[in-house]
Amino acid sequence: MNQLILVGRLTKDPEIKKREGKNNCYMTVAVKRPFKNSSGIYETDFIGCTVWNVIAEKVCEYCKKGDMVSVKARVQNNNYIDKDENRVYAYEVVADQVSFMQSQKTVIEETGKETYSDEELLNAE
Fold first, then answer.
1. How far is 57 from 123, CA to CA, in rounded Å?
2. What CA–CA distance (Å, rounded) separates 66 from 115?
3. Secondary structure E strands in the chain
4. Tens of pLDDT along 4-47?
């Protein structure tokens, strides 16, 4: 089974693009690790995801930087031959489903604060 579930905040506004004749967007999801490091701090992983077609259009229409999303995805292995004739392997996270969990607007309404650092957005509940 090749399935990945991510829950985190978008690091920037998603933008729609064309690739292979289809709509897509690339988004980075900041996912806080469930444990603290040796300094007592929760580290964050920044995971890039590719979203296609109608889902990409909806993500770009409704999501903004700082929004909390849940992503159901798969890991896809791509390979190609580079200019030096070496085979290069690349892994891509392809989102099959994106759920909008909490918008930045909701966070602002709940806290009364309009601007946040990236760290504050990641730690907003």
1. 27
2. 10
3. 4-10, 16-19, 22-36, 42-52, 68-81, 87-102
4. 999 999 999 999 998 878 899 999 999 999 999 999 999 999 99
